[in-house]
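User: structure tokens for D-serine deaminase, pyridoxal phosphate-dependent, please.
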Amino acid sequence: MSRPHPNSHLIGDLQARSALATPALILDLPVLEANLSTGMRLVKDAGKAFRPHFKAHKSLDIARRQLELGATGICVATLSEAEAACELGAELLLTSIISTDAQCKRIAALAASGATIIAVVDHPDVALRLESVLQGTCGALDVLIDLDMRRARSGCATPKAAAELGNLVSASPTLRLRGVQAYAGQLSHMTSCKERSAAHAEFTSRLAAFKFALSHILPDDPIVSGGSTGSMNLDLSGPLTELQCGSYALMDVEYLNVEPGWTAWPFKPALRVQSSVLSTHWDAHAITDAGDKWFADKYGAAPRIVLGAPETAVFEPISDEHARLVTEAKLHPGDRIECLPPHCDPTINLFAAYHVFAGEQLRDIWPIEARGL
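Assistant: Done. Predicted tokens:
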């Protein structure tokens, strides 16, 4: 039996921010809406399609706002995200490759249920497995050929391998080739603009070689999908036809540590973790209630304090339930501390809901979908 959220009684309260049960994930609604509008405007002005990534926020409420602003569809990273997002009625792109019979059957079931979904494939065996599972179920499934853009995580490693796979897909009665996925994720958190620009130039050249090898089988107006928040300024004028950015909506410490490529980041931090001070018996630190269970990083960044303690204070998760706040400032049990998360995607996956705020007022509590599998 589901329990009511411990903060649900605060919805509408003009002073709810200082009364939350913590740890709590806070979403600044005006900042979110500004980020969504800015991202859509930048992509639209560049003449490209925008298919923002659900994995960054895992929220149907945020995805609906992205679609209302003009997004072409939604990217999802997992089948469980696809199953949650299919109620949006938008075209979904499953950006992760699949391989097992169980995964092929789940995507076939989604397509058979009426969901519009595109899969990515990078191996003939998987294409044949999908073809077999799809026979007699839902007609043809749209697919993109996944290309390895030097990340060595997935994708055809050579233009020759991509062309061979493309020929197989083109001949399939149950698969329909829509284009390619060219995700160069290694660009996303390159700190130096100069290094990122050089890597993007190499990516552009490599993608051109793949597209040439596939030119005889690609449709007239192929999808060329990829990109990230970190490389967005380069992708707006690059060879991609649609962008998959996700973190632009929320931002985090690890993106703020990256040179943006613009004069300044056009996106602002919309996400915070609020914790409460528990104990203050020491001269140089206090203890709060948000430990390792409530923060995730990818590149070693720490949570960044933005409210409740001096900017010089250091927030250090030290156990599952506790963090040490290193500061000589005088704090008291019950004081509230707010931090930007190191990496938004996996931090969000640790929470069940967003507390959606405009100033001090709690506007709503939005569920976080598709956590786990």
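User: Anything notable?

Assistant: The chain has ten helices and 17 strands.
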